[in-house]
Amino acid sequence: MFIDSNIKIFTMHNILQFSSKFICFIILASFALFVQSCGNKEEKGVLSSLQKYDRYLLTLDADSLATIFAENGELGQEGQQSITGRETIRTYMKSFTNIKIYENRSESESIQFSGDSAVQKGKYDQLLSFHSDTVQVTGEFNAVWVKENGNDWLLRKMMTKPVTGN
User: Fold this and answer.
1) Do the Cβ atoms of 34 and 115 come closer than 8 Å?
2) pTM for the full model?
3) Alpha carbon distance 158, 121 (integer Å)
4) What is the rounded average pLDDT of the residues 18-22?
5) For the domain 2-165, what is the CATH code?
6) Are 86 and 73 in contact (CB under 8 A)?
7) Rg, Å, the chain Cα set
8) In this model, does residue 164 exceed pLDDT 80?
9) CA distances from 151 to 74, 84, 102 (A)
């Protein structure tokens, strides 16, 4: 009987030890999934905002495009002076009366988050006509997004660097 009770105690001890380890594992796994889902939600928000930017740029919808930018937003191209301010960006985009964009695609390569901001790097590809010339332009972009009103990702800065233009 003594051996039998030792086996029961040993088995109960193993069960308690296993249970506490299992509970710790569940807590850690849940925390990891929570952190990952937060990151995925934020990443999806930035990617969704980039899709809006692409859609508004494709149609040269200056009013909608301006709303993607923060009030102090900045739009620029490497080697040129940037345009700063939502209203200035709107006016600048409305000046593109001789440009037609046929294709516009952006591809995100990386997004790094820090608090309520994100830095996104990627590539873009456009087919557009200016007057009677049609050109294919590819390049890289560097975007700084800020989260405003708790949900909306707005562009603080969009800088492009054309790589080719044929």
Assistant:
1) no
2) 0.73
3) 10
4) 50
5) 3.10.450.50
6) yes
7) 26
8) no
9) 20, 23, 31
DSSP 140-165: EEEEEEEEETTTEEEEEEEEEEEEEE
- DSSP, residue by residue, 81-108: --EESHHHHHHHHHT-TTEEEEEEEEEE
Query: Is residue 33 pLDDT above 50, yes or no?
Result: no
* Adjacency order of strands within the sheet including 99-114: 83-84, 69-77, 152-165, 133-148, 117-130, 99-114
Do residues 111 and 46 lie in contact, with contact meaning Cβ atoms separated by under 8 Å?
yes
Per-residue confidence (pLDDT) for residue 36, from 0 to 100: 40
CA-CA distance, 166 to 89, in Å (whole number)?
26
Angstrom distances, CA of residue 7 to CA of 15, 17, 18: 12, 15, 16
pLDDT, tens digit, 9 for 90 and up, residues 40-49 = 889 999 999 9
Q: How far is CA 113 from CA 44, 85, 117, 144, 161, in A?
A: 12, 23, 6, 10, 22
Residue where the block lists tokens 């603080």? 156
Q: What confidence tens digit (pLDDT) does each residue in 41-86 have?
A: 899 999 999 999 999 999 999 999 999 999 999 999 999 999 999 9
Q: How many Cβ atoms are within 10 Å of 106's Cβ, its own excluded?
A: 19
